[in-house]
Amino acid sequence: MENNPTRLSHVDPDGRARMVDLTDKPATARTARARAEVWFPPDAARTLGLLGPECAADLVGPKGPVFQTARLAGIMAAKRTSDLIPLCHPLPLDAVAVDLRVVGDGLVEITATCKTTHKTGVEMEALTAASVAALTVYDMCKALSHAIEIRHLCLVEKTGGKSGHARP
Amino acid sequence: MENNPTRLSHVDPDGRARMVDLTDKPATARTARARAEVWFPPDAARTLGLLGPECAADLVGPKGPVFQTARLAGIMAAKRTSDLIPLCHPLPLDAVAVDLRVVGDGLVEITATCKTTHKTGVEMEALTAASVAALTVYDMCKALSHAIEIRHLCLVEKTGGKSGHARP
Amino acid sequence: MENNPTRLSHVDPDGRARMVDLTDKPATARTARARAEVWFPPDAARTLGLLGPECAADLVGPKGPVFQTARLAGIMAAKRTSDLIPLCHPLPLDAVAVDLRVVGDGLVEITATCKTTHKTGVEMEALTAASVAALTVYDMCKALSHAIEIRHLCLVEKTGGKSGHARP
Amino acid sequence: MENNPTRLSHVDPDGRARMVDLTDKPATARTARARAEVWFPPDAARTLGLLGPECAADLVGPKGPVFQTARLAGIMAAKRTSDLIPLCHPLPLDAVAVDLRVVGDGLVEITATCKTTHKTGVEMEALTAASVAALTVYDMCKALSHAIEIRHLCLVEKTGGKSGHARP
Amino acid sequence: MENNPTRLSHVDPDGRARMVDLTDKPATARTARARAEVWFPPDAARTLGLLGPECAADLVGPKGPVFQTARLAGIMAAKRTSDLIPLCHPLPLDAVAVDLRVVGDGLVEITATCKTTHKTGVEMEALTAASVAALTVYDMCKALSHAIEIRHLCLVEKTGGKSGHARP
Amino acid sequence: MENNPTRLSHVDPDGRARMVDLTDKPATARTARARAEVWFPPDAARTLGLLGPECAADLVGPKGPVFQTARLAGIMAAKRTSDLIPLCHPLPLDAVAVDLRVVGDGLVEITATCKTTHKTGVEMEALTAASVAALTVYDMCKALSHAIEIRHLCLVEKTGGKSGHARP
To answer: Is F99 considered catalytic here?
Structure first.
């Protein structure tokens, strides 16, 4: 039976989930940046001050404590990534940064950047940070609307490792 | 200073993040269902067998171990929700179910359903389960493409609590 | 050998650590409030704006992000209490609130309040929240001085349970 | 707006909490030692054997299991530091030791020492270990008195890193 | 395809892992008791004082700190059961007790008892407590011998729930 | 009082539990392999397809989802080892693999292999992975029989470190 003609790195030839073996990989400096969007329906966007000319700063008005809480939740989640994603390796993180800003009417962009000096990359850490920051925004605003949606969570850039500098 | 004219449930009148006080709420049966999509570029979709007539079953072919791992990761993440989302209440879960299926060329739909009998709902638990299941799919397939994207994470339905049966 | 003439609730007659058995206790509404102080040497206090007439508000100036981060760390730690304190029971929390304010030159007071409806109290949850909030203040300010000190962590008040309303 | 004239290492120029970036720091051997005191009112001190000539040993009498449990709780908490303190880096620990001894009538001193070979220090690990050990002592003795107080949690000494050997 | 003729409670008819749905089950008092053995080769047993007439007490001699550490590790692990076993429900524990005693030359018996008042039993909590206590004994003694073995981990008795009082 | 004539590595001369100090140990490549057995009574073995000629493959029939869930639970538990075993060091894991196969009528063998490049070995990680995988098998099959037993959990082999290649 050939269950894995695709040579998925996390599935062995018999179709069993597995961690990638890092034993022979060198530790190098690596970074990854991920982003997500949180979309608000118009009424909720208005209430939160996510419309018009006030959009620039992230700490003013009702969105202030929301963005600050989300930032910390994202940073802390990056550190829990290997607890959450079954086949991720635990690794020391050199830095985690999470930023939130209003990029359009009712649209919040979350960017998460992670750094490590290790044998494997921090792509999943950045994606997990962005994801949990977005969930935290949802949690704190869900009393305004249940139609809030998390969109376009993806990798923006990664550096280091075999593939060097890459943008998907 | 009026920092919270919006009466966000998770922000106090002085703009400080806070947990909602459940002391006087009755424990009732509650459910929530959330969904997310994972989108694959065509080459990765082809390799994983996410195209054409084989799409129906979720355990056959290379996607089998991916979907099974993601399901378990989602279930386990639901139980960690209050560890991840700063202002979520810890609560006993009656059930968690996570399903993955191919709904179009290169498009995987993840549905997470949570149930509790408690003073507050399980919306965040369902969203967290769907989110971590989607991240796990990404993790196991990222060797195929870094352009995989997680899309449209949202609440589908909730029952129980003050608002009763609701679809956003 | 009589190792426990004191009938410590958490030590059995043979001197072995044990959890208290809650089987026959009724679930009742309970609260606990704990406090701690963080003391800063004068230079650090001046730099942080912990002196003179600006002391009132907790979100203005350099201390703003420190206090906000500490508040969230305290809330999240309350939820981890039974993971940290070996003989504590896991329990559902109805509410956690953590407040920080400047109460004198270079002196920050942290107050943590926890609520539950359960068979045992939330004294340890309130103390743990205050303690971790204080450690977080220390962490964020330690570049200013290593002489910062955490002082007078104690219970202020508890209600509910066998002893009813009590102040130590 | 100049929100951070103090250049707090954990706050960026816009007043946002952040982790320090360790990318370019060398890994060196580092240690930190922290201490805390637990104060007991006279009746509780007498019951626990914290008075007079028996004070020396820490494993004899009713305080034995209390001290042993607190030691382990402190050691385990050191390993959870980066889970608890939002902006702490996860790091490998070379050693953790926690000691408790009676230093006066009704006064227990807790000392926690942590070691690592990493890019940042273990000050927060030592403080967290001492803090959780003290909370565990409180938990196990709270049936005797709610006036027990945790006092003077501070750093005693650190070695390694940019500042070399330092006593605050 | 009929993948589950056995109606395993944790596998759905399509062969997918699932949590049992507790929504309609009543909360009742439940207990479970599990046991495990740790076997030591003769030299290690002699060194640890696990031979002959000294066997009775568990706190005397070199085995004292080993047994005490294992007891606490087992109690704490019981509280983490739903974090470890993917399809276990999180639940409040009324009590956890772990005992270790020498039952023969080089043979240590570990008994773990858990209690809850909930919709499902605490069988897995008792087995997890016994298991982690046994692993802790191994860890602390492995410098003496790597041939130490953990044996016969099983359920001894459970009460409450649909099956009432049961011994396997 | 001489409490530790045995020089147990995890107990100090005064009988206090302690972590081993790794400060001066070099980081080297290390592996460990552990195994456990899960024994099923005949009826349960028959229902699960653990008898006769079908025994070879691990993903076919009712045992498929059981084995897959156990594999992931074991891998994830390896990453939690230092959270569970009080005196274990946290360490980065290079790889974790868990395999399950039927080795006789009603007898399932679990093998767990862990790798690291660190100052201490991964023996406890491998034993913890095998142990939690076995508990997960029990959990998913306990509706069939409560007489299922976990047996013979032991180290099979370790490489690296002072003792080099060793089989107990």
So the answer is: no
Q: What angle do CA E76, E82, E86 make, to 5 degrees?
A: 135
- Over residues B57-78, the pLDDT tens digits come to 555 567 889 999 999 999 999 9
Nearest to E92 among C16, C86, C90 (CB): C90
Q: Is any Cβ of chain B less than 8 angstroms from the Cβ of C83?
A: no
Evaluated on CA atoms B81, B85, B88, B89, the torsion sign reads positive
Q: Does residue D118 fall inside a structural domain?
A: yes
Which chains are within 8 Å of A by 3+ CB pairs? Answer: B, C, D, F
Domain that holds residue E59: 28-159
- In this predicted structure, the answer to whether residue F134 has a pLDDT above a threshold of 60 is yes
The mean-pLDDT minimum among B90-94, D9-13, F111-115 falls in D9-13
User: Which whole-number Å values give the CA distances from D42 to A106, D53, D61, D66, in the listed order?
Assistant: 61, 15, 17, 18
Cβ atoms of E26 and E119 closer than 8 Å: yes
A32 forms bridges with which residues in the sheet?
A114, A158
Tell me the C-alpha to C-alpha distance, in Å, between residue F127 and each of A163, E34, E40, F108, F131: 35, 19, 16, 16, 6
DSSP letters for chain B = ----TT--TTB-TTS-B-PPP-TTPPPEEEEEEEEEEEE--HHHHHHHT-SGGGGS-SSSSTHHHHHHHHHHHHHHHHHTHHHHSTTPPP---SEEEEEEEEEETTEEEEEEEEEEEESS--HHHHHHHHHHHHHHHHHHHTTT-S--EEEEEEEEEEESSTT-SB--
Sheet containing strand C149-159, edge to edge, reads: C95-104, C107-118, C28-39, C149-159, D149-159, D28-39, D107-118, D95-104
Q: Name chain E's partners: 3 or more CB pairs within 8 A.
A: B, C, D, F
pTM of the predicted model as reported, rounded to 2 decimal places: 0.95
Question: CA of A2 to nearest chain D CA: how many angstroms apart?
Answer: 40
What does the pLDDT look like over B114-155, one tens digit per residue? Answer: 999 999 999 999 999 999 999 999 999 999 999 999 999 999
Query: Cα distance from C62 to chain E (closest Cα, Å)?
Result: 38
Interface of F with E in 11-50 (CB under 8 A): 11, 15-17, 36, 47-48
Task: Check C19 against E92: CB less than 8 A apart.
Answer: no
Alpha helices in D119-165 (DSSP H): 123-141
Mean pLDDT of E96-106: 94
**Is there a domain that residue B10 lies in?**
no
Which 96-115 residues of chain F touch chain E by CB within 8 A?
none
The CATH number covering residue B114 comes to: 3.30.70.640
Secondary structure letter of residue F94 according to DSSP: S
Q: At D15, phi and psi to the nearest 5?
A: 85, 20
Domain tally for chain F? 1
| pLDDT for the residue A53 | 53
Best residue in B9, B16, B25 to probe C by mutation, most C CBs within 10 Å? Answer: B16
Respond yes or no on whether ipTM tops 0.95: no
F167 belongs to a structural domain: no
DSSP tag of C30:
E
Structure confidence by residue, pLDDT tens digits, C17-70: 899 999 999 999 999 999 999 999 999 999 888 886 555 555 567 788 999 999
Mark yes or no for CB contact B17/A128 under 8 Å: no
Among D72, D75, D95, the residue with its CB nearest the CB of F23 is D95
Q: Are the beta carbons of E126 and F149 closer than 8 angstroms?
A: no
Question: Which C residues 108-147 touch D at CB under 8 Å?
Answer: 123-124, 127-128, 131-132, 134-136, 138-147
- A143: DSSP letter: T
Average the pLDDT over each of B111-115, D4-8, E83-87, F89-93 and give the range with the smallest value.
D4-8
Percent of chain E with pLDDT strictly greater than 90 = 71
Residue D119's identity, in one-letter code, is K
Q: Does F83 contact B at CB distance below 8 Å?
A: no
In a domain, B61, yes or no: yes
